[in-house]
Design goal:
Blueprint: H1 5-12, H2 23-32, E1 44-47, H3 55-59, E2 65-69, H4 72-81, E3 89-91, E4 104-110, H5 118-131, E5 132-144, E6 155-157, E7 160-165, E8 178-179, H6 183-189, E9 194-203, E10 212-220
Pfam families: Methyltransf_25
Keywords: Methyltransferase, Transferase
Organism: Pseudoalteromonas viridis
């Protein structure tokens, strides 16, 4: 099923246009990978890069930064914003292909693959594994947890009860598919990788009834 057209519509309507690097992602990259210790040599790919919030962070450590997004509109804007990376930013559905010949030291997925069904996520993880160098890392944040307050809302996709759609209110309104993970599912989907770090975060914001809950992972390809 792959990329949801809803995201292209959101970008065209100037929504989800984050421009600042996500602090959790920055922390995981600097704590668990050699990023910052191999200046100019470290090859980084961000899948589902959106409006490019994390690209300046990666570019501060390497000139070999690549990015993919399914939205032609957002990729056009990114090429204008980062002209030095224009040939390294492409429109693609990363659940179907990663259209680069490079092998990467680091692949980053901040809240991107979570908007797919289980079969598409499994296919994406296989693609990522193929495109990682031995010893390379895959960092994933914002895989929503089954303990999230919105897990019991929405409509499940047929034969895939962990993937929901049809949210009309709340944080998932208008975003298409949303996948929710439990620990067992994560372990099954990532079994070909070495698991370096697994974090489950539950948040409760005062005044908001539904709690948030998400997973973050650091994986590596065995050498």
């Amino acid at each position: 099923m792959g990329f949801s057209k809803e995201w292209d519509d959101l970008y065209r309507n100037n929504r989800h246009m984050s421009v600042w690097p996500w602090s959790q992602l920055v922390s995981l990259c600097l704590r668990h990978t050699p990023l910052g210790k191999k200046e100019g040599e470290y090859q980084v790919l961000e899948v589902g890069c959106g409006a490019g919030a994390n690209l300046p962070f990666f570019c501060s450590y390497s000139d070999q930064v690549y990015a993919l997004d399914g939205s032609e509109h957002i990729v056009t804007l990114l090429k204008e914003r980062f002209p030095s990376l224009a040939s390294q930013i492409k429109v693609a559905d990363f659940t179907k292909e990663i259209p680069f010949t490079e092998q990467f030291d680091l692949i980053v997925d901040r809240g991107a693959s979570v908007h797919n069904d289980t079969a598409s996520i499994a296919r994406y993880l296989s693609n990522a594994y193929t495109h990682l160098k031995p010893g390379g890392h895959l960092i994933i944040t914002d895989w929503f947890s089954t303990e999230h307050g919105y897990f019991d809302s929405g409509t499940s996709i047929a034969q895939d009860h962990l993937t929901k759609y049809g949210y009309e209110t709340g944080p998932f309104a208008g975003v298409g598919k949303v996948h929710f993970f439990d620990r067992a599912t994560i372990m099954t989907l990532t079994e070909q990788f070495d698991l370096i770090h697994l974090e489950h975060q539950i948040t409760q914001v005062d005044g908001i009834k539904e709690q948030g809950a998400s997973w973050s992972l650091v994986l590596s390809k065995p050498e």
